[in-house]
Amino acid sequence: MTSAESRRINRLHRFERDLWESGSLLLCGLDEVGRGPLAGPVTACAVVIERPLRLEFLDDSKVVTELRRVALDALIREQAVAVSVGWADHLEIDSLNILGASRLAMHRALAGLGLTPCRVLVDGPSLPGCAYPQMPIIDGDAKSAAIAAASIVAKVARDAFMTQLDSTYPGYGFANNKGYATSDHLAALNAFGPCPAHRRSFTPVVQPTFDFAAAGALP
User: Fold this and answer.
1) φ, ψ for residue 209 (rounded to 5)?
2) Which among 1, 52, 175, 196 could bridge 166 via Cys, Cβ 3.0 to 4.6 Å?
3) Are strands 82-88 and 134-137 parallel, antiparallel or unpaired?
4) Which positions ≥6 away from 160 have C-beta within 8 Å?
């Protein structure tokens, strides 16, 4: 690791360092991915750490390449005290709306930890109903090492799910677009209509001329 990267990683732990120095030991980073896609679940991850993660290239998952995200995912799981992934599927997104489903996935990730964190560092606004003391950090995935780690693991988990979904519903390019509204994805939607994994509550998916009752006629 270069000295510049070492300094960046050190800065990325500034919130965690302050909390450790104040006596909080088990710190949990919490983040979610998949709010924007037109299909598939929203995925949250909780990562608990008790010491700095010495991980080169650790950063917001959106600015890390796929190859590095996969490598970091394995290293995060090695160095973390606990890692838990929570999901809310497309039906829950349609029922609760994407904000409610994102919060549900976050609660499920926390519930799967099997331990009690001293403090939850959550990306964005606070999480209603969180059972643990929390520290909301706007743009936290770019400012907190624990939240960045959570964003990496959540992204890798969701991307793997969408790649598998591509085999179930070929033709939409889920392995490449991960459900986001790329031009190819929108073209497939126009050609075939939505598959059962699409989010019916999202405007680009709703096609007034598409017969949902005939959804058995899938590609």
Assistant:
1) -90, -5
2) 175
3) unpaired
4) none
